[in-house]
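Our collaborator T.R. sent over the components below with a one-line note: 'Predict the complex.' Nothing else. No constraints on interfaces, no templates requested, no preferences about which chain binds where. So this is a plain run: every listed entity goes in together, and whatever single assembly comes back becomes the starting point for the next discussion.
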Amino acid sequence: MSDVDQFAEHISRQREKWLEELNEWLRIPSVSTDPERRGEMVAAAEWLEEKLVAAGCQETAVWPTDGHPIVFGSYRSADSAPTILAYGHYDVQPEDPVEGWESPPFEPTVRDGRLFARGAVDDKGQLYVHVKALETWLATCGSCPVNIIYLIEGEEEVGSPNVGKVVRENIDKLACDAVVISDTSMFAPGLPSLCYGLRGMAYCQIDARGPKGDLHSGSFGGAVVNPAEALARLLASCRDTETGAISIPGFYNDVVPLTPKELRDWGELPFDESAYRDDLGVAALSFEGDYGVLERLWARPTFEVNGLLSGFTGEGSKTVLPATAMAKVSMRLVPDQNPDEIMDALEAHLEELAPAGIDIEVTRMLGARAWLAPRDHPVLLAAGRALERGFSAEPVYIREGGGIPLVGLLDELLGVPAVLMGLGLPDENAHAPNENLSLENFYGGIASAVYFHEELAKL
Amino acid sequence: MSDVDQFAEHISRQREKWLEELNEWLRIPSVSTDPERRGEMVAAAEWLEEKLVAAGCQETAVWPTDGHPIVFGSYRSADSAPTILAYGHYDVQPEDPVEGWESPPFEPTVRDGRLFARGAVDDKGQLYVHVKALETWLATCGSCPVNIIYLIEGEEEVGSPNVGKVVRENIDKLACDAVVISDTSMFAPGLPSLCYGLRGMAYCQIDARGPKGDLHSGSFGGAVVNPAEALARLLASCRDTETGAISIPGFYNDVVPLTPKELRDWGELPFDESAYRDDLGVAALSFEGDYGVLERLWARPTFEVNGLLSGFTGEGSKTVLPATAMAKVSMRLVPDQNPDEIMDALEAHLEELAPAGIDIEVTRMLGARAWLAPRDHPVLLAAGRALERGFSAEPVYIREGGGIPLVGLLDELLGVPAVLMGLGLPDENAHAPNENLSLENFYGGIASAVYFHEELAKL
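Returned assembly:
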């Protein structure tokens, strides 16, 4: 117990300093999807490398890729010690719509114990926990009982297109006994959560093209098929409004049903549908047959319109019959759906229904399979004990609706268990304005990571 | 015939000078829908007032309104002479998408006998014809056989919200025997056309609102009704794809069918559907039951999506479940549809179909009834003879798919016939990039306006 106190005391003494460090990093707008922010991406990567050195890594590097660089770090304790690989990402989502933020997205601001900034929870703040855990071990005990590899990429928010190649090329350097990732959420405040399943994704842009140029809607309306209306109809055709199910032929072919045990366990989670609805500010939720909300979020695939653009969208009116219309569409996938096959099914469906006079082009942008871990693996159970110590509460086992593309790849390439130790909260606003991280979870996460190292070393 | 030569010779000598003047005007970006261009609107109005003085008006004024100013001019010949009111508009459509222009929208450029600029045909170039017609009379004969009132507004492209009040307040100053407007198109090059019917319009913005903020499409997809998908479905629900007809209940209640004579006459117009399709660059046109293209364009109402905006629309991907989605929608109307009743019908339809979890708001923006003139009125026949002299070709009688909101109002308030002497061409690109005016039609239009004065004076 003396160790525990020592760790907690150290963390407690460093709170302000570590918050200041994190704020410095959050001020760098490392938006990976924005080609004009390549410089900021490099700055954010170099900032992290410095901090890995300061934390105690004996070896660090910023690996170039065809896209944004990857930050590597290695702390070696002993060859006999278990090795964990901490994965995370320093890139963040775009900040738009900027007008939705209460404080500027790249000026970190604390309100009511929450740190508000783009990247606070997704994922700079969460991954920084694992850097500070190593620092805590070295500051308090002079060494850490596990070897730690850091693999922090800059393209998670754009589907991790380049990290796979780098992982394959450096597979020897990345050999480990477990992967640990903090990039998910707790089920509820004060309820530490281990995530054992993630949905996959297929993301595309759909362009509908009609006449060769924009037309006057008075002079040509009635003769020309409107691409915006055609696109709207195609999008609407992807769901059966009676059942709420996705009506793309073949879409559900490979979906694996939930086990009765999972259904039972999820039924015991403290989920208040009415409060959830109120938090979202909606009068009703969506539906799909008889599936419950958690099943729909964690174990059922989705069809989602992420963006729409066509014609005149400014103030006032313009009587244009637009030449083109564009939609961004993503489908969240569950075991055993294959993203390529799902995209094939969508494309076939759209081609089948596209009206004469409209050309449809589908540009595939992201694809990742869903991931599911064995819930009773010793490493997951060790992580559960660490969380219980860090947060003084028994953890729950959950899935997540979102995805982390690299999790599936690391599973495939390294064949070791992954621990998803989520520190976000349900109202963390990842990918939206007012993204935030609970400071209590930040510090509790650092303690849990320290205890996880200890628990792993005991196995 | 000596007069004719005199007019034609004068016009011929002034070609370069008048083109230079028009170019100067076209360089002023008088976009009425853009609040940042109020200064340019005033500059464009004052420019025109100067030219009315120079042309020979004894009285001119720039009348303020609650929106953009109206330019008034009056040339008095004799109390016994007939009086015409020339109406037009100096405001223009927004220039976007700017990247679609071959030469900049506000740098007038002549290519292949066409003048390319925003406002070239709609409507600065066309209305300027009537200014130069007065100047031609005074320069050649020292007087004009008709009194001319100019009423040139700055809000036609935003639905003429303020001109009605001004017309009512100045009804004594505007008393006339006929209205003349050049703001429509010739049916084909070399085929002078008199337009005796315009469609009306009901224009609105539809906002679909779901959750109170943008959400992560992974974390919330499957639980929340997507506003972009809901809006797409609502838009799609407004048409029956089997018949091509608009499926808003009550939409066609007041539509007056075409007369057999009009159908016959339209059948004789030189319309080549295949060439029309090729010009538009589409493999197929839209359809509505058995109606032909000209009927659909001129005598059938439409439902058109003019704009769509929701969520993420930039480069790349963003996995957002958007909080809102917006569409701009317009419906072209025919006799005897009432724009308010049509908007009521649309709103009722949307409210009926909106899914639980989505709020729909409809903001009405423009409303105008369709207009239809008696084709055999002596003033229209006089205009026909003038066009035949100006273009050395027999004119055709057509309708237009677009609308000119003031035409209906002047009809109601002044109770005099309106002559729509269109000088545009089918590929004029009004409201789109590369808007243009045929210079041959510009000069031929000035001659026709001069002859129209002569023909009117003879009645």
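Summary for T.R.: The first helix of chain B runs from residue 2 to 26.
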